[in-house]
Design goal:
- With 296 residues, the chain is mostly helical.
- The chain folds into two domains: 225 residues, no CATH class; 27 residues.
- It is built from twelve helices and seven strands.
- The longest helix is centred in the C-terminal third of the chain and has 32 residues.
- It is globular, with a radius of gyration of 25 Å.
């Protein structure tokens, strides 16, 4: 008991020095990883399990950066009118500091909106993927098998559903990624008598991604389900619970911006508008001057 107070002071001093010396990564690493039972993992992956493999890959990676999701969702919503090369150019010119996996979802405002609207779910999904990658992938396969066996999940004009033993969901057109719409309470349960199982999953909405989005991993991201491995942007995904504070995933061709987020594009647009407005006003004054002389 006599040594308890000095010991506490020593521990507090050590923690203070660790933080002052940039030791936050050490504290993050020291935190015990979460542990989710299979039923909980089934619940966590249910709303994305039937998405195409490339989209699932980007969502799982992005969920490990939950603090970036709300701002990214706001950016995506503000730029929802941009498509293709124009959107890729805007992402690049704005010097966004989000991780590449988060930036990869910017063409999908609805997906980022879903993640931002339920941050508890997003954080749990990301933590589970960091701590139990194999178990998360098994849960996705389990849910896909359930939906397929009940007849809901099947090949259609947008996706090809693999026959197994590991169920893949791949886009028919690799450059067109659909975002399925479905109710987990329906597609992972036996169909009611007379229910049309073919209409339980909607594949009507999707995004066309061209070569401009290759630096964000589109076209080079997939799963090796049998090896429980994710390849993102052409490289093995190696972020785990233990190295989450230091791991930086390599994306081939991706230029990572390390400075503050820029607003050069918005400023340039504003300047252009000012210049056009000044030109219009100047032209109007000239016209008025000429008309005035003509009347005299």
């Amino acid at each position: 008991m006599r040594h308890s107070m000095p010991l506490k002071r020593s521990i507090l001093s050590t923690l203070f020095l660790t933080l002052m010396m940039g030791g936050m990564p050490l504290l993050l690493t020291a935190q015990a990883p979460p542990s989710y039972p299979p039923e909980e993992l089934d619940r966590l992956v249910a709303r994305i399990a039937l998405y195409p493999d490339p989209l699932v890959a980007q969502i799982l990676a992005a969920a490990t950066y939950p603090d970036q999701i709300p701002d990214a969702a706001k950016w995506a919503d503000e730029h929802h009118y941009l498509r293709g090369d124009d959107l890729a150019r805007a992402i690049t010119e704005d010097h966004l500091t989000y991780d590449a996996s988060v930036q990869a979802l910017l063409p999908f405002p609805s997906v980022l909106g879903m993640m931002a609207s339920d941050m508890d779910w997003t954080s749990e999904l990301g933590n589970a993927f960091l701590a139990q990658q194999q178990d998360v992938m098994d849960a996705i396969q389990h849910q896909r098998k359930v939906a397929r066996d009940y007849g809901y999940l099947r090949t259609n004009a947008q996706v090809v559903v693999g026959a197994g033993p590991y169920i893949t969901i791949l886009p028919v057109n690799p450059g067109y990624i659909c975002v399925p719409v479905y109710d987990p309470l329906v597609v992972f349960a036996p169909p009611r008598p007379g229910f049309f199982v073919g209409g339980a999953i909607g594949f009507g909405f999707g995004i066309t991604l061209g070569f401009a989005f290759n630096p964000w991993g589109w076209g080079s991201s997939h799963f090796f389900w049998d090896r429980h491995e994710l390849v993102l942007g052409g490289a093995h995904w190696g972020r785990t619970w233990g190295n989450r504070a230091t791991y930086v995933h390599p994306y081939h061709g991706f230029q990572r911006w390390t400075g503050p987020r820029g607003e050069e594009r918005h400023e340039r647009i504003a300047r252009s508008e000012e210049e056009r407005r000044a030109a219009r006003e100047g032209h109007a004054r000239v016209e008025e001057h000429h008309h005035g002389h003509g009347r005299r």
